[in-house]
Amino acid sequence: MTNCQPTPTKINFANSVLPEYRNSYAIVIDNAFTPEECQRLLSKADGKFETAQINMGGGKSITDTSYRNSGRVIVDDQQCSDWIFERVRPFLGDIETWVNREGPLSRMVRLNNQLKFLRYEPGQFFKPHCDGYYADPQTHQISFFTLHLYLSGPPAESPPTFPCHKAPPTSQQSFFITSLTSIQSTLTSLFTSPPAPPSSSDEIIGGATRFWGKGLNMESWMDIEPRVGRVLVFQQLGMMHEGREVTGGLKYTMRADLMYETIRDEDLFGDVEVVESDGEGEDVEVVDVAEEVEEQ
Q: Locate the Prolyl 4-hydroxylase alpha subunit domain: which residues (predicted)?
């Protein structure tokens, strides 16, 4: 029995600063796990963090700390994976079934048992990228969504807030507005004190998961900040995001893939609600490294 009271908030991109993701899916589930449960999960990492690599596809990985700088431990734990999945599944009804592009109807069946624990110390980050699919060669299941569980940070606020910024107008009339904004930003950086250090062991400065606009639109953004017990689920392949630099405290997260299998009985089509991807993942652009990389 758990004392947590999960609170789901589906991100309405159509009415956000990132309307280009209106057909994409993301949800935040606050208080999905208690701080004590997060600590027990984190203990599975056993402190054996190594430098995280970048998955380039085709079984190839590289280490580039100028692009991805964090620690990582991969724990293969089916029992723990099942426990996490059963906790969050009641809030994922919108994606129980999924059709990706022109592919077959698929249903969500499990959380990948490879749990990737990530540690971000001050100065560490993961630059903008898109998550790629994971295909299980044994079960032929495929992932369509990433699940992040934040294991550290302050408690979630109620109602949740997601800091965001909208790109300024791009017309010629916006020149003076943009110039003034630049001047104000410069003055602020000159006369504002640096961020104070964390006031407690639970506080994290920086470290948000930031969603950026599509392609090279790196002006509009939305932040999902680390909150202990918070779960973030979002669509893979088409959503540009990054792990913002941590400037104070320690950020711990656990990442895994939601796995789907093809529904082969065509008679089921009349019994389920089909959710279709917009297929915009075709236009993925990842800054500086590769077309698709895995994880945040």
A: 24-259
In this prediction, residue 179 has a pLDDT band, given cuts at 50, 70 and 90, of very low
DSSP one-letter code for 131: P
Based on its alpha-carbon atoms, the radius of gyration of the chain, rounded to whole angstroms, reads 20
Average pLDDT for residues 99-119, to the nearest whole number?
93
Question: Closest by alpha carbon to 115, among 62, 46, 39, 44?
Answer: 44
Domains in the chain and their CATH numbers? 7-54+69-168+201-283 (2.60.120.620)
Non-local (6+) Cβ contacts of 24 within 8 A are: 13, 234, 235, 238, 239, 278, 280
Q: Would the pTM of this model clear 0.85, i.e. be above it?
A: no
On whether the CB atoms of residues 75 and 84 are closer than 8 A, the answer is no
Three-state DSSP class for residue 77: coil
Number of helical (H) and strand (E) elements in the chain, helices listed first = 3, 20
Average pLDDT score over residue span 252-274: 76
Backbone angles phi, psi at 177, to 5 degrees: -65, -45
As given in the structure block, the two tokens for residue 255 are 């990442």
